[in-house]
């Protein structure tokens, strides 16, 4: 009953509690009835099976201690009840087992010493091979992977030597031996696959030349890259199964180092495999593709970022990419039949943004913070403006164009005395272009010309390797300045996975109030949209402060979000289209539409300390609270939202608190301050977006910075 009772109690939460329960029931029967050896054997067998699978409890080693406490009395009583002959048999058996274990330990030690240096050398060579792949040195990569294979193979032979095999039968030692076998087998298979990929996947040839990408080369790369990714995933699973605190340091160090390299390389391999799978379709290998390009400018803000100032149509056919058409957005807004265009959905999109008349004014088709929603509306309206059906939308703003110029080099634009570069393009498009003299039509033509010249260069010049392209464009993609969404579900999933599809907060909040990593938590996003019909928003600075008192015991938070909007625009000295407005407000006044998207429920709102009413709607599984603001030149307006938030399951007191903050790509990044005050608990850990984080003696967390992407933080609580 002692054995079965502890087995049942310790395995609660596991299906093996059933085995313990049956053993406990049988032991009760055994106590009441006549002793039976077979029944005792069944009880012991079931109990031991449950004890061997105790879930993780407390600190490391607790399950083993519980098992020892459960089994020890049975062994002691068994020894006491045994006769002298049985005791001698047990003693000799233990002595023989000890001798066998000693010999097995020595054999494994010799094998481990022989294998250790080979494993270390194999990891070094594999890492050098990956570095060579990243730089495009295929012959060098192949040589490194060949040497890595040889090293891992030598290590595998060492751990499979006859003197190493007995260790697999000894408890404890068997796990050490399994770890060596997993690393050496996985290493051999992995480096063989990587070497094959390095020789048969021509990375150096995968370059766009004058807008042409060789789809045959893409197809040639798919299988070897997929095999490498599968080998990495298999190696990761194998090593995770054997990596354990029980490993002795001599084995734990190379195992953990090997695991770290796999974890580093696997995301890159999965990304390459996914990209190779979707690239042929995206590049027109399965039929001509047309993508609408919305050139945004946050000098006149919309919730996604900026208004659409001009547009383009990018065509892809059999790997050849061309800019088919481009022009100012007015060409589409004022196209024949403008007053008869209709937008039938999405329903929530129309409910939230129909007031901005996107069917009539296509420049407002970035009204939503979610690119896929905007893209769906563009796909419905562009054919009604004289265009052909499209298969996706590319969204790019001045920072995105600057990133593209890192690939193309400087471009010459009609009407500009000097070429635009990656260093000057953003400032020119955000503000400088509006300060030049001349008629408004000429200014708009130059804006269109910049976009056209950039994409003409992009599809007409030779581009660098995929890795160099990723390095140049990555920050712009993650910051929402360069986005791409496809209407094909598989392609859309890939683009979402790499953070390029422009989904609001990565698309993770649509199912309900939860942070991107799930589990029920907190999120918010501040968005502003120009309401004055001018280009004044490059003069708008925003500071967002979020104070939340979090009660882990109830899973609730009382939060206060303060949005400070500072208008640095002057009252005079600049053109009307920059600091004037369509409503006759004093020049330099910033008329803006503020939207606060949140997982919480509003309990009150103020403007500069005075209570105000706000519009309340639902979107993205949460709430959005909106108000119209007039901000005089040089003034600061503060809007405060008081919120009640369900941040988790209160039945699991002390679980982590997670907060996600959505980023709006504007001319200037927000200043963000987050303060989290635990109620009845203290914060013991804080993982944030890379900004400065402090954790004071009271267990309060403060994080601040100017993030340029969506960010999230995670805070762990403990009882005081």
Number of helices: 18
Q: Which descriptor suits the 3D outline?
A: globular
Helical proportion, percent range: 40-55%
By helix and strand content, what is the structural category?
Answer: alpha+beta
Question: What portion of residues belong to β-strands?
Answer: 15-25%
Strand segment tally: 20
Main sheet makeup = 8 strands, mixed
Query: Any idea what the radius of gyration is?
Result: 32 Å
- In what order do the strands lie side by side in the largest sheet? 11-10-14-8-7-16-19-18
Determine the N-to-C terminus distance. Answer: 38 Å
Low-confidence stretches: 511-519
Give a quick precis of the structure.
The protein is α+β, with helices and mostly antiparallel strands. It has helices spanning 2-10, 17-32, 37-51, 62-81, 84-134, 138-159, 173-200, 215-242, 249-282, 330-333, 347-353, 371-381, 398-408, 425-435, 440-460, 466-478, 489-497, 576-579, and strands at residues 289-302, 305-317, 320-328, 392-396, 482-486, 522-530, 540-551, 556-567, 590-598, 601-607, 610-611, 615-619, 622-631, 636-646, 657-662, 671-678, 682-687, 692-695, 701-705, 711-718.
Q: Could you explain the architecture of this structure?
A:
The chain is built from 18 helices and 20 strands. The protein is 44% helix and 22% strand. Helix 5 packs antiparallel against helix 6. The protein has helices at residues 2-10, 17-32, 37-51, 62-81, 84-134, 138-159, 173-200, 215-242, 249-282, 330-333, 347-353, 371-381, 398-408, 425-435, 440-460, 466-478, 489-497, 576-579, and strands spanning 289-302, 305-317, 320-328, 392-396, 482-486, 522-530, 540-551, 556-567, 590-598, 601-607, 610-611, 615-619, 622-631, 636-646, 657-662, 671-678, 682-687, 692-695, 701-705, 711-718. The chain folds into 4 domains: 2-81; 93-282, Methane Monooxygenase Hydroxylase, Chain G, domain 1, CATH 1.20.58; 289-497, no CATH class; 510-718, Immunoglobulin-like, CATH 2.60.40. The protein is of the alpha+beta class. Mean pLDDT is 87; it is low at 511-519. The radius of gyration is 32 Å and the shape is globular. It has an 8-stranded mixed β-sheet with strand order 11-10-14-8-7-16-19-18, with no helix packed on it. It has a 7-stranded mixed β-sheet with strand order 12-13-9-6-15-20-17, with no helix packed on it. A hairpin with a 2-residue loop joins strand 1 and strand 2.
């Amino acid at each position: 009953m002692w054995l079965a009772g502890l087995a049942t109690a310790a395995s609660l939460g596991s299906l093996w509690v059933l085995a313990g329960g049956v053993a406990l029931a049988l032991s009760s029967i055994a106590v009441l009835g006549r002793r039976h050896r077979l029944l005792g054997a069944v009880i012991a067998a079931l109990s031991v099976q449950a004890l061997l699978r105790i879930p993780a409890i407390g600190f490391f080693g607790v399950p083993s201690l519980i098992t020892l406490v459960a089994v020890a009395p049975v062994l002691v009583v068994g020894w006491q009840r045994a006769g002298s002959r049985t005791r001698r048999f047990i003693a000799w058996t233990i002595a023989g087992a000890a001798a066998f274990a000693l010999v097995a330990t020595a054999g494994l030690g010799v094998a481990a010493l022989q294998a250790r240096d080979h494993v270390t050398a194999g990891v070094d060579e594999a890492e050098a091979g990956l570095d060579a792949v990243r730089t495009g040195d295929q012959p060098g990569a192949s040589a490194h992977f060949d040497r890595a294979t040889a090293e891992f193979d030598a290590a595998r032979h060492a751990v499979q030597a006859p003197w190493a095999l007995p260790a697999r039968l000894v408890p404890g030692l068997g796990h050490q031996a399994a770890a060596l076998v997993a690393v050496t087998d996985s290493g051999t298979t992995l480096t063989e696959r990587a070497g094959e990929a390095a020789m048969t996947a021509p990375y150096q040839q995968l370059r766009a030349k004058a807008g042409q990408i060789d789809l045959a080369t893409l197809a040639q790369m798919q299988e070897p890259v997929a095999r490498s990714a599968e080998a990495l995933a298999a190696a990761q699973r194998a090593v995770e199964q054997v990596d354990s605190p029980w490993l002795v340091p001599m084995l734990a160090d190379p195992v953990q180092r090997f695991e770290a390299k796999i974890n580093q390389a696997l995301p890159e391999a999965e990304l390459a495999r996914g990209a190779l799978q979707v690239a042929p379709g995206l590049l027109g290998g399965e039929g001509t593709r047309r993508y609408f390009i919305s050139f945004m400018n946050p000098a006149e803000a919309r919730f996604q970022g900026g208004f659409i100032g001009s547009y383009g149509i990018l065509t892809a056919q059999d790997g050849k990419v061309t800019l088919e058409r481009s022009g100012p957005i007015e060409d589409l807004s004022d196209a024949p039949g403008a007053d008869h265009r209709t937008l039938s959905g999405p329903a929530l999109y129309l409910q939230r943004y129909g007031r901005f008349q996107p069917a009539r004014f296509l420049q407002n088709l970035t009204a939503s913070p979610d690119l896929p929603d905007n893209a769906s509306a563009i796909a419905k309206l562009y054919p009604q403006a004289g265009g052909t059906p499209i298969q996706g939308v590319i969204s790019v703003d001045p920072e995105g164009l600057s990133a593209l110029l890192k690939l193309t080099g400087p471009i010459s634009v009609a009407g500009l005395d000097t070429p635009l570069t990656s260093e000057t393009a953003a400032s020119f498009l955000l503000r400088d272009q509006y300060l030049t003299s001349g008629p408004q039509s000429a200014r708009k033509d130059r804006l269109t010309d910049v976009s056209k010249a950039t994409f003409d260069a992009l599809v007409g010049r030779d581009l660098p390797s995929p890795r160099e392209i990723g390095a140049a464009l990555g920050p712009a993609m993650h910051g929402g300045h360069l986005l791409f969404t496809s209407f094909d579900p598989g392609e859309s999933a890939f683009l979402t996975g790499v953070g390029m599809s422009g989904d609001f907060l990565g698309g993770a909040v649509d199912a309900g109030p939860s942070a991107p990593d799930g589990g029920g938590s907190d999120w918010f996003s501040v968005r502003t949209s120009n309401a004055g019909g001018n280009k004044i928003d490059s003069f708008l600075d925003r500071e967002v402060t979020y104070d939340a008192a979090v009660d882990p015991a109830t899973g609730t938070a009382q939060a206060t979000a303060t949005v400070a909007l500072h208008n640095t625009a002057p009252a005079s000295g600049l053109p009307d289209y920059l600091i004037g407005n369509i409503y006759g407000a004093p020049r330099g006044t910033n008329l803006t539409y503020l939207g606060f998207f949140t997982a919480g429920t509003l309990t009150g709102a103020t403007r500069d300390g005075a209570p105000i009413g706000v519009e309340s709607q639902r979107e993205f599984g949460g709430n959005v609270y909106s108000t119209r603001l007039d901000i005089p030149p040089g003034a600061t307006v503060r809007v405060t939202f008081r919120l009640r938030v369900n941040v988790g399951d209160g039945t699991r007191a002390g679980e982590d608190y997670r907060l996600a903050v959505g980023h709006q790509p504007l001319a200037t990044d927000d200043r963000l301050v987050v303060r989290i005050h635990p109620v009845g608990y203290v914060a013991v850990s804080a993982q944030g977006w890379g900004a400065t984080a402090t954790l004071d003696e009271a267990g309060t967390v403060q994080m601040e910075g100017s993030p340029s992407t969506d960010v999230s933080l995670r805070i762990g609580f403990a009882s005081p």
